[in-house]
Write a structure and sequence with these properties.
By secondary structure, the chain is of the alpha+beta class. 37% of the residues lie in helices and 19% in strands. It contains 15 helices and 23 strands. A hairpin with a 2-residue loop joins strand 11 (172-177) and strand 12 (180-182).
Length: 553
């Protein structure tokens, strides 16, 4: 590397040398032709930088565009700020909230009088496009927590003030757009003119902020109706009202007042009540339900949920029999291959479907069945003399990523199946403008669990996470609306408990790894939480599946 040059890594893997001592935005303009999508940020020696930053030689730079995961995060965060600024301009004093993902977009609310209608949503979108055409800078500056608190109070962003009481630094970054200053606790694009790909959809009682898709950054992703998922998010909102808070700052206040154990008890009671209601729903259908199917993405707490559901079914007089899909894997040399010609263990045909369905039918018909055990060391199925029999009138419980896919249980009529989708959906937002990504919650759960029980470092877990996510997109999310019941396994207090175990693991990842950027992001939002000791977490909690000392394992 030449001492007065910056090395830029291009998307195709080649490099070019360019003069240093300039802003990243100037350099990005020179190399944009090598990218298939707009550049929005950069990695300099594996640290994330905004395009407004200057970079000195010698350095290694990789620009992030909308095909990069972190590039999409920055674009969508900036688009969210644009939406908030437009709503702030049009409806002074209205409560603006960004609540959760929905239909490949973000569900947001603008609480005002009269209530938000389609004309209001159209007006916000028009104002957003005016700001884009004006190509305004997102003016960044540092402010002390005290100064920021005064600004937020003037703008009626009271929920942000509560978070600043325990702010982990002596400053925070504010971004001005028009008459509003805000922070969404992350980096932004430099100018509004870069935010051209979006659309608003009126979705009572709020709206959906739609943006470009992962596969085609130049087009808005199609809206996918998710009625059942939306109801679960609404239920989470009701749980927040019962708890008395919906933001990190408000929860921190309760922890400071030594009410953390009560928060844990109420959150766990809400879980228990929901599981009991699902059990009641199954029992209400009598002998019709023969197979209970539980599916969800990685680190949703499926195993503990299945155990707790079984307990509630026992209370109702049912004695369900669990059966493991894992024991029906085909021998490893018969496993389907992925696009890289590597074994795809998450493919549905990695399961011996004919044998699995044969055994399901025989069990339902009252036969005694010799079931296999899969030897993960040898990669082969073995029979070790284990036989099971399903008592008359009792259901089977099947848990796994493919459980909602009818192909897995094709021999069983739909009316005889009860499908449950479980995932750690949003339980708490940082503030009303900044949500916590559900995938980050699950990733933190997995980091803590894998370190404790599987000997994997945080780096190991973050490295495989993209592959895990691809499998979820292919095998899980596509089927979630087919569920008869959904369960939100997120616990409002869990990041305060995970914080103490996760932070030292994440701090082991240094900037020599590309995963450093993920570690820094996770550490950043964990820093907003006051810690809670795990002693008050009950032994049957779903969280115990990840932090240990579960009564089920």
């Amino acid at each position: 590397m030449l001492p007065d040059k910056i090395t830029v890594l291009l998307p195709q893997g080649s490099t070019i040398a360019v003069p240093g001592g300039r802003s990243l935005q100037e350099i990005a303009a020179e190399v944009q032709q090598h990218h298939d999508a707009p550049i929005v940020a950069a990695l300099v020696e594996n640290s994330l930088f905004e395009l407004t930053a200057a970079v000195e030689a010698p350095s290694k730079v990789r620009f992030l565009d909308l095909t990069d995961k972190e590039g999409r995060r920055i674009y969508r965060r900036s688009l969210t700020l644009l939406f908030i600024a437009a709503a702030f301009d049009l409806f002074p004093g209205a409560a603006i909230s960004v609540e959760h993902s929905l239909g490949q977009g973000l569900f947001c609310k603008i609480k005002k009088e009269p209530a938000l209608d389609a004309a209001d949503v159209a007006a916000v979108e028009q104002r957003m496009r005016q700001l884009v055409r004006a190509d305004l800078p997102l003016q960044k500056r540092r402010a002390s927590p005290g100064e920021a608190a005064q600004i937020f109070l003037r703008q009626s962003f009271d929920d942000k003030v509560a978070l600043l009481k325990n702010w982990p630094k002596d400053y925070l970054n504010l971004y001005r757009l028009g008459d509003m200053e805000d922070t969404l606790y992350g980096y932004h694009v430099p100018r509004t003119g870069m935010l051209r790909i979006f659309k608003l959809k009126h979705y009572p009682p709020g709206l959906v902020l739609r943006f470009s898709g992962e596969r085609d950054p130049a087009r808005i992703a199609p809206f996918v109706e998710q009625i059942k998922l939306f109801e679960i998010f609404r239920e989470a909102g009701q749980w927040g009202k019962i708890l008395g808070f919906d933001t990190v700052g408000a929860m921190n206040k309760l922890i400071e007042e030594e009410q953390g154990p009560e928060v844990i008890r109420i959150a766990e009671a809400l879980h228990e009540k929901k599981i009991a209601l699902i059990a009641d729903e199954i029992c209400a259908r009598g002998d019709e339900i023969r197979v209970i199917l539980i599916a969800g993405p990685s680190s949703s707490g499926k195993t503990t949920f299945a155990q707790r559901l079984r307990t509630q079914l026992l209370v109702n007089g049912l004695r369900p029999l669990p059966i493991s899909i894992d024991d029906y894997f085909v021998d490893r040399d018969q496993t389907p291959l992925d696009e890289s010609d590597k074994p795809d263990f998450e493919h549905i045909e990695a399961v011996d479907l004919p044998l699995f369905n044969e055994h399901l039918l025989r069990l339902i018909e009252g036969e005694r069945v010799a079931i296999p055990t899969y030897n993960f060391s040898t990669g082969k199925r073995e029979y070790r003399g284990q036989e099971i029999e399903l008592p008359a009138g009792q259901p089977l419980i099947v848990e796994g990523i493919h459980a909602l896919n009818d192909t897995l249980t094709r021999a069983i009529p739909r009316r005889n199946k009860f499908k449950i989708y479980i995932s750690a959906l949003t339980a708490l937002n940082i503030d009303r403008h900044t949500r916590i990504h559900t995938t980050d919650t699950r990733l933190l759960r997995r980091i803590v669990r894998d370190a404790q029980f599987r000997g994997n470092s945080a780096l190991d877990t973050i490295c495989v996470w993209p592959s895990v996510r691809r499998g979820e997109e292919r095998n899980v999310f596509h089927y979630q609306e087919e569920a008869d019941a959904m369960f939100n396994s997120a616990l409002v207090y869990e990041l305060s408990v995970l914080k103490k175990q996760a932070e030292p693991l994440l701090n082991q990842i240094d900037r020599s790894h590309e995963e450093y950027i993920d570690a820094r992001r996770l550490l950043s939002f964990l820093s907003f939480f006051l810690p809670l000791e795990p002693a008050a977490v009950p032994s049957n909690s779903l969280l115990r599946e990840f932090i240990g000392q579960s009564c089920y394992f």
